[in-house]
Amino acid sequence: MAIALTHLISWTQVTSGGTIVCAYGYAFEMHGMHWARYIVALGACVGAFTSTGIGLYGFSRVLQVFARERCAPVVCRSVHL
Questions:
Q1: Phi, psi at residue 15, to the nearest 5°?
Q2: For residue range 18-60, what is the model confidence (pLDDT) as tens digits?
Q3: Tally of domains in the chain
Q4: In terms of residue numbers, what domain contains 55?
Q5: Residues 11-28 pLDDT 10s
Q6: N or C: which end of the chain has fewer CB within 10 A?
């Protein structure tokens, strides 16, 4: 996506009236591909939810290890699937 963005739009065109716009959606829209901005937005939403889920999963494992070492409450020691 970064390579596509650098070839579609100049870095000076990323701002619109002093405010930064969504560079990917704006770049595709400037080239007449209005449908692509929705695909980019959907991909960004899916990526945000996925990374949040992975982060929460990792945090639960770290919390369990902290509880086993008695650095966190002992209640967090057990994991139920």
A1: -95, 145
A2: 666 667 777 777 788 888 888 888 888 898 899 998 988 888 8
A3: 1
A4: 2-77
A5: 777 666 666 666 777 777
A6: C
